[in-house]
Amino acid sequence: MALKIKSKFFSILKLAGFIVACVAASFAVIAPLWLFANKAPGLYTRAVLLAAALFVAYKSVRAAKKAGAKKSLFFALKALVVAGGCAAAILALANLSRLFFFLSVFGAALLFGLVRFLELHAGKGRP
Fold first, then answer.
1. Contacts 24+ apart (CB under 8 A), 42-51
2. For the chain, what is the largest distance between any 2 Cα atoms, rounded to a whole number of angstroms?
3. What is the pLDDT of residue 2?
4. Helix or strand or coil: residue 95?
5. pLDDT by residue (tens digit) across 74-126?
6. Rounded Cα gap, residues 91 and 105, in angstroms
7. CB 44 within 8 Å of CB 36
8. pLDDT higher than 80, residue 20
9. Which helix (H) or strand (E) holds 104?
């Protein structure tokens, strides 16, 4: 009976120690970041955006190496068409131009379809 109580006590003590270690580690990471964000918010924003952009670029390059050059090229083209169409549509909405909005969405859809068609038929016709 005394062994079970002792075992439970040490389990609770280990859990409490783990929680204290997690709180201390999180404070050691968060406190400098919070101080940096308060002292230089513009620089902090640029640093976070740069870190996020580098992470996205790294993951994109790794995915491109796995997928192959042709798949990566068509993916990049489709992403560029979608991003360009969204940007043009946002500009049209900002300028309150319904015609430009319609043309940008329609043009982006046509370009996306063309790229998709080329993607599907890229390997055909070769022996």
1. none
2. 82
3. 62
4. coil
5. 888 999 999 999 999 999 999 888 899 999 999 999 999 999 999 888 876 55
6. 12
7. yes
8. yes
9. helix 98-120
Q: Comparing C-alpha atoms, which of 70, 102, 67 is closest to residue 88?
A: 102
Q: How far is the C-alpha of 41 from the C-alpha of 33, rounded, in Å?
A: 11
Dump pLDDT digits (tens) for 28-38. Answer: 999 998 999 99
What is the spatial distance between Cα 22 and Cα 26, in angstroms, rounded to a whole number? 6
Q: What tokens were used for 67?
A: 């997928």
Under 8 Å between Cβ of 72 and 64? yes
Identify whether the C-beta of residue 123 lies closer than 8 Å to the C-beta of residue 71: no
- Using CA atoms in the order 127, 77, 55, 87, what is the torsion angle rounded to 10 degrees? -170
